[in-house]
Design goal:
With 550 residues, this protein is an alpha+beta fold. The protein has a domain at 25-196. Helix content is 19%, strand content 45%. The protein has helices spanning 2-26, 33-44, 92-98, 130-134, 136-139, 232-235, 350-353, 399-402, 404-409, 473-484, 508-522, 528-535, and strands spanning 48-49, 53-56, 61-70, 79-90, 103-109, 112-117, 147-162, 170-183, 188-195, 201-208, 221-231, 244-256, 260-274, 285-294, 299-309, 312-321, 331-342, 362-364, 367-377, 382-395, 419-431, 434-444, 448-456, 462-468, 491-497, 502-506. Strand 21 (419-431) and strand 22 (434-444) form a beta hairpin.
Length: 550
């Protein structure tokens, strides 16, 4: 008897297996296509088209080929999404006996999704499901909260572009996404990875949801963001005319409630250029920051940022505002400052900033302090502020030899190969039309103090008018005597050429005549003893015991 029962059981299992294998041929699964298209269209508020449907009873899956989801007609007449296939895992019992489709898993293969942002900042995906929400009272019984245990995207392509723009869209390839315990009414876990435009990759993982009823762009998210080798120029983060470029790594935490977003983390940039005429620098820039974004006003605040360039540390803070258009229209108001930073740390950043020094020279030692403001649109920033340096040496360049006549007046030797700057300070204004320096004050033993102002053109041409104040030698003597009378003596110096090959023109003759004339006015008030000491031999003075030899 037992054997009979085993035989019957075995036969029953075979029959069941054969039935399951035969069911796909017995059931016209494509007859469900209108129902599935209607439900999907109602849920998304977009027309959905499905190609051929295939059913696998053993796997409990339904495969729809050639998926198409229309775009919001306000954005585009083309499709929002196209995919090679969609594999739907369904519950078999409701499907077979009640003709109900209960989805437990979705896998989208090779989709291409096009995201479009309008000039007012709105996105085409924000209206997904809007039509269903408007009719939720009528659909409530048919459209409960959508839940899917598993959702995945394999080898997707994401195209991001601006409406009415001629710029090439951003294309993200090999997009992969995994979602678990998806529900439109609560938060769910997700993981997203992609290859970036140009080069590099990015990953985003955390929780999202619940999905807002009217605008999916307002979905709450808590996630970590990791970006490797983001190419700024290829990605379009900044306008090309800004000259800012390089490879960027990001390690961030992101929190948004749909209206306010906070980003905290570290920005690391390599091969950076920071000027339209700059060249990549090997120095790595690291920025620890906290950014708060107001999604409604499209404004943001940089609440705290520490910028590390080698051993140099700057602090930055400010605000920015975007009108929803391209990055070049972002208006910023940024403050950057640093005190007593080692100049050596900045040396390799000079190419990125298009800072030129005389050929064959470099700065060594000393410190620099800066307090700068950057204001205006990213495409036409205006930088203003004050910069000062102390106790640095321009190695490989002898300013005294270049200004030989002035140095001679100052009584200085010109054989030293380097130029020491005891101090240097100036105010700076940087615009698209060039660089302006004013209130320049430098002090170098090779020449003495000097003041002036000037400009640097976008092509690097110098146009400076300086006044040197020799403090030693013949000129120094005349200067000291002149200062007693009509004023201090000086030597006008024009600086032309380029920063790499500067040309100095010193009007020593005019300066000497001016000094002599000023001296004549003040000599009457100069004690005879002082004149004797200046031009005559030094002799003992009975009135001054210090002059008597011991």
């Amino acid at each position: 008897m037992k054997k009979h029962w085993l035989m019957i059981t075995g036969i029953a299992l075979v029959i069941v297996a054969l039935t399951l294998l035969a069911l796909p041929f017995l059931i016209n699964i494509n007859s469900f296509r209108p129902q599935l298209e209607a439900r999907a269209s109602a849920a998304l508020g977009r027309k959905v088209k499905l190609g051929e449907l295939r059913l696998s009873i053993l796997r409990g899956t339904l495969v729809a080929n050639d998926i198409e989801v229309a775009d919001d007609p306000a954005f585009s007449p083309s499709n929002f999404l196209m995919a090679k296939s969609l594999e739907i895992a369904v519950e078999l019992k409701p499907l077979l006996f009640s003709r109900q489709v209960n989805v437990v898993g979705l896998v989208l293969e090779h989709p291409t999704i096009t995201l479009i942002q309008a000039n007012d900042g709105a996105w085409n995906f924000s209206t997904l499901g809007a039509a269903a929400i408007k009719n939720q009272d009528q659909l409530k019984s048919k459209m409960p909260a959508i839940t899917v245990a598993r959702f995945g995207v394999n080898d997707g392509t994401l195209i991001v572009k601006k409406a009415d723009s001629n710029r090439q869209p951003m294309v993200y390839r090999n997009v992969r996404m995994e979602v678990s315990d998806f529900s439109s009414a609560s938060s769910f876990h997700f993981k997203l990875t992609t290859l970036l435009p140009g080069e590099g990759d990015a990953g985003l993982s955390g929780t999202a949801g619940p999905l807002p009823s009217r605008d999916l762009s307002r979905t709450p998210i808590d996630a970590t963001v990791k970006v490797n080798n983001l190419h700024l120029a290829a990605y379009g983060v900044v306008p090309p005319e800004s000259g800012i470029d390089g490879l960027v790594n990001l390690d961030e935490t992101l929190h948004t409630d749909g209206t306010r977003t906070t980003l905290r983390g570290t920005f690391t940039g390599s091969n950076m250029t920071l000027s339209p005429r700059g060249s990549p620098s090997p120095t790595v820039i690291s920025i620890r920051h906290a950014i708060v974004l107001d999604l409604t006003s499209r404004s943001g605040t940089l609440t705290d940022a520490d910028i590390a360039i080698g051993q140099a540390l700057l602090h930055a803070s400010g605000t920015f505002q975007n009108d929803g258009r391209q990055a070049r229209h972002t208006i910023i108001n940024l403050q950057v400052s640093g005190t007593d930073m080692p100049i050596d740390a900045f040396q390799s950043m000079f190419p990125a900033l298009n800072i030129k020094l005389p050929l064959g020279s470099h700065l060594q030692g000393g410190t620099v302090s800066a307090k700068l403001n950057a204001t205006g649109p990213l495409s036409a920033l205006v930088i203003t502020g004050a910069i000062s340096a102390a106790n640095t040496t321009l190695v490989g360049y002898n300013l005294g030899s270049q200004l030989g006549s002035v140095a001679s007046l100052a009584g200085k030797a010109v054989a030293a190969p380097d130029t020491v700057f005891q101090s240097a300070s100036f105010n700076v204004t940087v615009t698209s039309t060039g660089i302006k320096l004013d209130q320049i004050a430098v002090d170098t033993p090779a020449v003495g103090p000097a003041t002036g102002s000037g400009t640097v053109s976008p092509t690097g041409q110098l146009n400076f008018a300086m006044l040197a104040y020799p403090t030693h030698g013949v000129a120094g003597a005349l200067t000291r005597m002149a200062s007693v009378g009509a004023g201090k003596g000086n030597v006008p110096v024009a600086i032309e050429g380029t920063a790499e090959k500067p040309v100095y023109v010193a009007d020593v003759g005019a300066a000497a005549k001016s000094m002599v004339a000023q001296t004549a006015k003040g000599v009457a008030s100069v004690p005879a003893r002082a004149i004797k000491r200046l031009f005559g031999k030094k002799k003992p003075d009975d009135d001054n015991p210090d002059d008597n030899p011991k």
